[in-house]
Each structure stands twice: as structure tokens, then as C-alpha cells.
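testing teh design pipeline on a random one, pls ignore if ur not involved
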């Protein structure tokens, strides 16, 4: 399968090169040239498969030619066997026809494990075959860093450097990163904020000369392979709830638009999906665009659902590419314009976006009420991101006969502040495999807020 850039000027690549590429050379994002499409009969025949078996069916067309079937199967089996629940992505019922899908049963308790576990394995496989070593650099305010480290800790051909803002991530999140002890894992606590970390990573990608010829690889959500891995659980939920004969709706706590974009792809691949709900916190640029056709950046609001605190959603460009009839040149102009100015798109294009998505924005106050109510009614503890999804699902739902599934993107134990603010006096407990997290040895280096210092550290420590 070939992959093309959303801005139309970069060369088309094979899967293997997309895996290593990050941004396209024209500044765009890679998308498949054509999507695999499954018939209803084919999807129906997958009922009863295990998660790993289903994952193979859904994803293999994307990697075919780059990774042999038997290798790919082994990777998937091993990864999803490492999840804590035998169903991998179990459904929990909250109300009549209303569900949450628990995507936090992986090693770091957030849905990002689904993709980053696989990404680490695929990178390692490809790099070994090429006899190449790479450096991964990433900035994190929490979930991505730990999931990336867990995904790469056993990869011989990767050195991973994750920057987090010193003293500005929660204890659980820091420990999930810094207690992974390995020769190839480096945690840098930068004396600055998350934006400083992100800027230094960006600048390092733009000029990689400090690495003396070694290559940097991106594991942030613009990496195509991450989106690919997230398509699978939409199929899984649907098949459990009577699909494909019956269509299902999804509400997705959204930041960078990666997770919900995977749902959009699942629908385009033939899965009957009724509504796709973009659920945001106060950082609601997507909700404003979908409701008013105004794309306008605001300053960042810090909320109790920090993994959705964004100013722009990087993966939204992938949807815009389709809304622009896959005209890369036109999209490149739009993106250039939106860099500096607010704007709208032609009415008919915006209307098609509205047919594809519903949206809702939820305040911290309302989110806390939802956590509290759900705890009282269901004896079930939602994490703050998931609570936003549940509220958005209820506000936008059009047909009560269609099952509504909210993606539960993180375990509540990762966000104790929100749980406390919601008035829950019983703090959530760490799952068994992490119960000794607070006793584990930590390893990280505090580093001054300077690009030169960070790059010197990376150059010195990479193997
Ligand atoms: C990353 C993250 C999100 C947002 O996902 P996107 O793919 O960026 O839209 C939502 N919830 C949690 C807990 C996350 O870690």
C-alpha cells in the first residue's frame, strides 16, 4: 500500500518508510492512498474472533509488503496478551444501550498503549532488518511519554529520550516513565514547561545535525501507524454489540483528533457507524469549528483533563484533506493561511464535516458532576477524559435505539486531582501490575531549559 502526503508535494511512500517518516517533507501528514474496504459479510464473519485475531484482519492490508503475515501475527499476539483484561478492550454498560469501552487495560493505563506497543515492535522489526539504529525524541505532559517508553523499552535498535516538564506532571505519570529502567531509556526533566519541551523536540527534528547522521523518529500522534492501530477497537465494539447488522455510535474524548479519526476510517472501511461524537474540554477549537465553521486558535486552558489540552489538533489536517477532495495543493494553501489567521471553509465542505461528526464541549465543573453521578448510580469510576465523552454522548445522541459507546481513554488512577474535585473520597487504586509503582526505583536527569543542553545530552547518551 502506498501513502501520500496531505499537502501533495512529498513523494508517496511505502509503509516501512511512513513508519520512520513522521511529517512529510512538504509539511503534510501521510495517509493511505486508498483504504481497504471490507464487505458486510466479511465483517460479519469476524464475530467471535479474539481481539488479536481481529486486529490482524483489520490491520494487515495496511502493512502488507512491509511486514510478513506471520511476523505481524506474532507481534500482535504478544502485545495484546500483555494487556490486563483477557478481552483486551472490554465493554462496560452504564445504561440502556449506553456503554464505555475500557481502553486503559494496557501497561500504562491509557489508550495510547494500543498504538505505541505496536509501533515499538514494528519499528524494531524494520530497523533490525535494515541494520539501522534510530533515536526517538518526544515531549510529554503525561500519557504519551510513558506509553512510548513502554512500547520501546525492549527495542534494541532504538534509544528513546522523553522530555517532561520538571515537577509539572503528576506523581503517577512521572513514575510510570521514570521507573522504566533500561539502557535505552532516558527521561529528561526539563526546567521549563511543556511548551518548552515540545519546542525543543520540534527544533531537534528540524535540524538533526547534532546527531551526526543518526535519524530521529517521531512517535507523536502524527505517526500514521498509531492511527492504524486505533481503528481496530471500533470493529471490536461493533461486533460485540450486534454489528455489522446493527450500526453503533461512538463518543471520543478528543485532543489531537487521532483517536476519532481512526473511527472515521473504520466507517470508511465499511463498518456501519451511526454517530461519531467529538468530545472536547474547554479547549474546544474542534467543537467551535463543527458547530459554527470558525477555525480559530485560542490560548491554552489548563483543565482537569490535561491529555486533551490543545490549541490545535494536528490530525485534523487528515480529515480536511478528504473534505478538500484530496486536493493537496488547496489544502497546503489553507493550512498556510490558518497558521496566522482564523478562518472558515466553503459552506458545502463544512456541511459534509457536520454530516460526519457531532461535537460537544464540557467544562471541568460539569465533568466532575458526571464522575460523581456515575459513581453514585453505577458504582463505576470514570476518568476525567472519559467523563467528558459520556456527557458529550448524552447531549448529542439522536437515536436511543442505536448503541452508544464512549471510549474510556484512561484509568482514573492517573488523574487523582479530578477524582478528588469530583468529591469522591475513596481514591482509585492502582491495578495489580502497578501496585508497587511508588516503591520502584526512579531514574531521570534534571536538565536546564536549553536546546543546546538537551541536544548535548542526547548526543552523549545515545548508543
Ligand atoms: C491522548 C489522549 C486523548 C486524546 O486523544 P487524541 O487522539 O489526541 O484525540 C484523550 N484522552 C486521553 C486519556 C489521552 O491520553
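output:
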Amino acid at each position: 500500500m502506498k501513502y501520500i502526503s496531505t499537502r501533495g508535494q512529498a513523494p508517496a511512500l511505502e509503509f516501512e518508510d511512513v513508519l520512520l517518516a513522521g511529517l512529510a517533507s512538504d509539511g503534510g501528514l501521510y495517509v493511505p492512498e486508498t483504504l481497504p474496504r471490507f464487505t458486510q459479510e466479511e465483517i460479519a464473519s469476524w464475530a467471535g474472533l479474539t481481539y488479536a485475531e481481529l486486529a490482524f484482519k483489520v490491520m494487515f492490508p495496511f502493512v502488507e509488503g512491509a511486514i510478513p503475515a506471520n511476523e505481524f501475527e506474532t507481534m500482535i499476539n504478544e502485545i495484546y496478551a500483555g494487556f490486563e483484561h483477557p478481552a483486551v478492550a472490554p465493554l462496560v454498560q452504564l445504561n440502556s444501550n449506553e456503554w464505555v469501552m475500557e481502553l486503559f487495560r494496557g501497561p500504562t493505563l491509557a489508550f495510547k498503549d494500543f498504538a505505541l506497543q505496536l509501533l515499538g515492535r514494528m519499528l524494531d522489526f524494520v530497523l533490525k532488518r535494515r541494520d539501522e539504529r534510530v533515536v526517538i525524541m518526544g515531549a510529554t505532559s503525561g500519557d504519551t511519554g510513558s506509553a512510548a517508553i513502554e512500547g520501546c523499552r525492549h527495542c534494541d535498535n532504538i534509544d528513546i529520550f522523553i522530555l517532561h516538564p520538571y515537577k509539572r506532571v503528576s506523581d503517577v505519570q512521572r513514575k510510570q516513565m521514570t521507573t522504566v529502567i533500561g539502557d535505552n531509556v532516558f527521561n529528561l526533566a526539563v526546567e521549563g514547561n511543556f511548551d518548552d519541551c515540545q519546542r525543543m523536540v520540534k527544533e531537534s527534528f528540524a535540524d538533526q545535525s547534532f546527531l551526526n547522521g543518526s535519524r530521529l523518529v517521531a512517535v507523536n500522534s502524527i505517526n500514521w501507524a498509531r492511527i492504524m492501530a486505533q481503528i481496530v477497537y471500533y470493529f471490536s465494539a461493533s461486533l460485540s454489540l450486534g454489528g455489522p447488522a446493527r450500526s453503533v455510535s461512538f463518543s471520543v474524548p478528543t485532543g489531537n483528533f487521532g483517536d476519532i479519526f481512526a473511527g472515521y476510517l473504520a466507517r470508511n472501511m465499511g463498518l456501519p457507524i451511526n454517530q461519531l461524537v467529538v468530545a472536547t474540554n474547554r479547549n474546544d477549537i474542534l467543537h467551535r469549528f463543527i458547530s459554527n465553521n470558525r477555525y480559530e486558535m485560542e490560548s491554552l486552558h489548563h483543565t482537569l483533563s490535561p491529555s486533551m489540552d490543545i490549541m490545535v489538533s494536528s490530525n485534523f489536517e487528515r480529515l480536511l484533506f478528504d473534505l478538500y477532495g484530496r486536493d493537496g495543493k488547496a489544502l497546503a494553501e489553507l493550512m498556510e493561511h490558518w497558521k496566522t489567521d482564523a478562518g472558515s471553509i466553503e459552506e458545502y465542505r463544512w456541511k459534509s464535516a457536520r454530516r460526519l461528526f457531532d461535537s460537544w464541549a464540557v467544562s471541568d465543573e460539569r465533568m466532575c458532576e458526571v464522575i460523581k453521578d456515575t459513581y453514585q448510580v453505577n458504582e463505576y469510576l470514570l476518568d476525567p477524559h472519559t467523563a467528558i465523552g459520556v456527557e458529550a454522548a448524552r447531549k448529542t445522541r439522536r437515536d436511543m435505539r442505536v448503541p452508544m459507546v464512549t471510549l474510556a481513554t484512561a484509568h482514573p488512577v492517573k488523574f487523582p486531582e479530578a477524582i478528588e474535585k469530583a468529591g469522591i473520597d475513596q481514591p482509585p487504586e492502582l491495578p495489580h501490575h502497578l501496585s508497587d509503582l511508588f516503591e520502584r526505583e526512579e531514574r531521570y536527569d534534571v536538565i536546564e531549559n536549553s536546546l543546546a543542553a538537551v541536544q548535548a545530552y542526547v548526543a552523549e547518551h545515545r548508543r
